[in-house]
Amino acid sequence: MARFAWTEFFRLAQQLSADRARLHDDEALRRTAASRAYYACYHCALALARRRGYNASAANLASFGVHERLIRWMQSQDDRTLAQVGGQLLTLKALRVDADYFSQQFSPESTATAVAIAKRLLRHLGTSPPT
User: Fold this and answer.
1) Helix ranges, 58-107 (H)
2) Distance CA 6, CA 110 (A)
3) Which sequence spans correspond to the domains of the chain?
4) Burial profile 24-44: b = 16 or more Cβ within 10 angstroms, e = fewer
5) Could you tell me if 73 and 61 are in contact, meaning their C-beta atoms sit under 8 angstroms apart?
6) What is the pTM of this model?
7) Residue 112: burial class (beta carbons within 10 Å; 0-12, 13-18, 19+)
8) How far apart (Å, rounded) are the C-alpha atoms in residues 20 and 66?
């Protein structure tokens, strides 16, 4: 059985956010698109980090959750691209947390921002976002 392509989450986020009228009227759609955009990037970043020697159980990261560990590891790297990806992933994570956990309105603009950041992030990760 083939492994799941995490970029499919990004494809779904793009599809959900493409219909501007529906995006404006459907907050669940907006939240889902932002969340899927984040998880596409998180899993692609995790795969790259593992190829570069990332160890999630390193003692200096043990007190953080798995998402925060990856972000902090990326931001601490000498490789400027990895460090930038870590910063962008942190921004995208904040949008995902708002979408998944807080009941205040999640705007169409927040969704558009999440999808745009995810698209840039996937390119930085060397993963072509599906169109």
Assistant:
1) 66-75, 80-101
2) 21
3) 40-124
4) eeeeebbbbbbbbbbbbbbbb
5) yes
6) 0.92
7) middle
8) 34
List the structure tokens of 45.
Answer: 């970043």
Dist. CA 56–CA 78, nearest whole Å: 18
Which amino acid, residue 76?
Answer: S
How wide is the angle at C-alpha 34 spanned by C-alphas 32 and 36, nearest 5°? 65
What's the rounded Cα separation, in Å, for the pair 62 and 80?
24
What percent of the chain is helix, strand and coil (3-state, nearest 5)? 75, 0, 25
Instruction: Specify the length of the chain in residues.
Output: 131
Between the CA of residue 40 and those of 46, 103, 123, what are the distances in Å?
A: 10, 23, 12
Tens digit of each residue's pLDDT (9 = 90 or more) over 35-73:
999 999 999 999 999 999 998 777 666 778 899 999 999
In the predicted model, is pLDDT for residue 88 greater than 90? yes
User: At 90, which amino acid appears?
Assistant: L
pLDDT value at residue 40: 97
* pLDDT of 108 above 80: yes
